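Cast an eye over this sequence plus tokens and walk me through the fold:

***
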Amino acid sequence: MAALRNPPTTTTTNNNNNFPLLLCLFLSITTAAAAAAKAPTIYDYLNSNGLPIGLFPEGITNFSLDSATGRFQINLTQPCNVKLENQLHYDFNISGLLSPGKIQELSGMSQQELFLWFPVKGIRVDDPKTGLIHFDVGVVDKQFTFSMFEIPGQCIDGGEQPSQSSDSYWFQERYENQGVLRADS
């Protein structure tokens, strides 16, 4: 009868053979988790507040938002214009107060009507079912279709930038505070 022998024992001389594999696995998981936890963009905040993402153009370098107050600041690479039905002008910095369905205390954005530039002071969507968005330019309340702002517009050279000394600012300053010429179009 043959005697049973114990199987030969193997000893690992280097327990670190799995270290590179474990390191790669750890880095992959960490990278995937970081991508999943990506910080929201201003477009995400617009969308979650019932506003179209195309209210602000492409080319945003960074932004900040105070979630407690809704106050935001956007920085662009350069002032620019976006051509829609009319032209919109965006300064280097755009700021305002974001809340559901509206942006108040807006600065850094102007709209061209005919040959005059008017600062956009606020934007609101009264009833999303109507498909209308309102721009408060002080003198008038301009209505646009929601669909015009479905995607962020492409910035083109700032070109003709609004000037504080332009006739539109004089016109607005003179009549806005008197309640004259307030119209919905």
About this structure: The first strand starts at residue 60 and ends at 65. Residues 129 and 155 are 29 Å apart (CA to CA). The helical segments are 19-36, 42-48, 167-176. The chain has three helices and eleven strands.
